[in-house]
Amino acid sequence: MLNNSSAIIGVNLGEVLVASGKKVTAVPGSLIGELSRCVENNRSCFYDSPQLSSEDIARELINAASGERRDNTYIPSEHDSYMDNYIEDLEALVRQYLSFARGVVNQEVNALHAAILAATDSYRHRAPEEIFNVSYYALPDVFKLDFVQSEIAEQAESRRILDIGHDLLIDPAVRDPEDDYLKLLSSGDEKDDILIRGYVDSFKHDAIRYLNQNVNMLSLTLPTLIQYNFVNWLYYRRIANGGSVDSSEGLSTISKKANHNTNYFAAALAANLKQYKQVVGAGVLLSAPVGRFSYFSEGVLDVCVYEESFAKLAEAGFGIETIFGWISQGSPSNVPMVKDIISDGEFHNKNWRTVRNLYQTHLNSKRLDTFKHLALITFEASVHDKEALTDAEKEIIAKDFNYTTTTNQMVAEYLKNITEEDIGCPHKVALDIVGKIRFRFSNAYDILCRIKCILDEDESADPMYAALIAIKGYLVDYCLEQTQVSTGVM
Amino acid sequence: MSELTIEEQESVLRSKATRNNAFVLSNIIELVASVIVRVAGHDTADEIDGETLNRNIVSNLVARDIKEKLSK
Q1: A383 phi, psi to nearest 5 deg
Q2: How far is B2 from chain A (nearest CA, A)?
Q3: Is the pLDDT of residue A458 over 60?
């Protein structure tokens, strides 16, 4: 039987093809061939008339395909038998194909995709900017507190005490930064202590070290020197003001040491703050020399930028990349001035772009090789365990002992030829490896690729809808393979 | 056919050619649309999951596919 819509649509399409000079015939003996023959053979249904419309032709086809009505009984035609059987058989086959493609193969694709992502994640390569550990320094608000400003200022001119040095440190006996070490640094004012806590918390591990050990001052930059002197000043200030301390020394000795050290660290802090004002005023950009740059190095370069100087750089239209460009020129052993960076700003920007591109090229090539290697070992691991194989694969392997070896070779060959673009789409790589190679005995790859195309065009499409549209295309191709097209014939 | 004018003869030939093409095409459309409708689980499918995929729509989609592939 031919449905009315199939007939009229078929006739309309037939007319379009005739207009473009095309003739479609079915391959004799094929499925489509048999169906066409059943209709064609009923010659008595067809009339050659110049007045035939498309609807007339469609009606002829329907009549030619239909069975007979006798005494209220419908006797199926030959076409009915063929069509019903083919529909039933193809429906069962298509359900099998979809079930295998979506239920088995697609699960393996997703599993391999997840495994590749997990493997490559742990080999994440650094972005070019990650070579630098950038921090920005501005004088913290704690130095605006009244008592800090007034007491530090008192010691501003005390050069002599700095020459004398400080007494042996009184051990605060605090080792764990998670302890409430802030009680050792209390200013006596709760409100001020909140600001102090906020500042010291930002370097609390170092704060403990500054209180517990003799620190090599030459290893400290100006910002860290300020931290060191600040915590020690507060510590001894609290003791000098009568705060408790766990020490075997006499009270008078403790008081003398605490007073001396308070004045010492206040004087040191005053000198630091004066120096800070001078360097940012002069336009010094970094707090310390950076060290040798190499993008092949595994290390990280610490770059501490004075915020006030950076603001001047930004006003001139330059940014952190300009500083990167200056650093990557060679081995800068000094610290740059803002005016020097600005005067060659475009050159430094261009330098960074060149270095960055070189690094990116090196990175991409490394990434591609790493991806290929990881994808291969991940795939081989996924099929190594025989129990992990599907029943369908076990059947194939039972007939072809070399199937797995050949599969692994094909995957290695495939991965050899993938490009940078491919590793940007690891799911496609997994689909190719699993669908096209591992399950090459099935049509799952064809079906899954069709589904993927539909879902790529419309992300909101229902997966079952996408599967049906994919199968429609698959079946049309299957049917057209049973036809021949000739041109220039009417 | 010799009693027909030239235009009428051409019309007859066109109709025959159309019919010959339609033998094949209508069967492909009927077969594929029927299978899709049955796999979708609706014998007279009106809608599938909110998408309008009834027999008529599927038949037209199949025809469009055939036209695209035969135009290449």
Answers
A1: -110, 0
A2: 12
A3: yes
Cβ–Cβ gap B36/A472 under 8 Å: yes
Q: Give the DSSP letter string of A39-81.
A: HHT-GGG----TT--HHHHHHHHHHHH--EEETTEEE--HHHH
Is this model's pTM higher than 0.90 or not? no
Mean pLDDT (chain A, rounded): 87
Alpha carbon distances (Å) from B35 to A23, A148, B41, B60: 26, 86, 10, 14
Q: Predicted confidence band at A435 (pLDDT cuts at 50, 70, 90)?
A: very high
Q: What are the tokens at A170?
A: 């009184």
How far apart, in whole angstroms, are the C-alpha atoms of residue A10 and residue A479? 14
**What's at A62, amino acid-wise?**
I
Q: Which of A36-45, A202-211, A213-222, A441-450 has the lowest mean pLDDT?
A: A213-222
Question: What is the average per-residue pLDDT within A84-100?
Answer: 94
Tell me which residue in B7, B21, B36 faces A14 most closely, judged by beta carbons: B21
Q: Quote the CA–CA distance of A128 and A466 in Å, as a whole number.
A: 41
Query: What is the pLDDT at residue A424?
Result: 86
pLDDT by residue (tens digit) across A298-314?
Answer: 778 889 999 999 999 99
The structure tokens 């689980």 sit at B41
Contacts of B31 in chain A (CB under 8 A): 31-32, 35, 83, 86-87, 90, 475, 479
Q: Give the C-alpha separation, A469 to A463, whole Å.
A: 10
Looking at residue A370, what is its pLDDT?
A: 85
- Report the C-alpha gap between A233 and A251 in whole angstroms: 19
Q: Which residues of A touch B26 (CB under 8 A)?
A: 2, 6-7, 9-11, 14, 39, 58, 61
Summarised one tens digit per residue, pLDDT across range B50-62 is 455 688 889 999 9
Beta bridge mates, B48: B51
Identify the DSSP state of A387: G
Q: Which residue of B has its CA nearest to A466?
A: B51
Other CB atoms within 10 A of residue A37 CB? 17
3-class SS at A284?
Answer: strand
Give contacts of A23 with chain B, Cβ < 8 Å: 17, 20-21
| A257, two tokens | 């040491």
Apex CA A437: angle with CA A431 and CA A439, to 5°? 85
Tokens standing for residue A278: 């001078």
Query: Cβ–Cβ of A91/B15 closer than 8 Å?
Result: no
The count of CB pairs under 8 A between chains A and B is 199
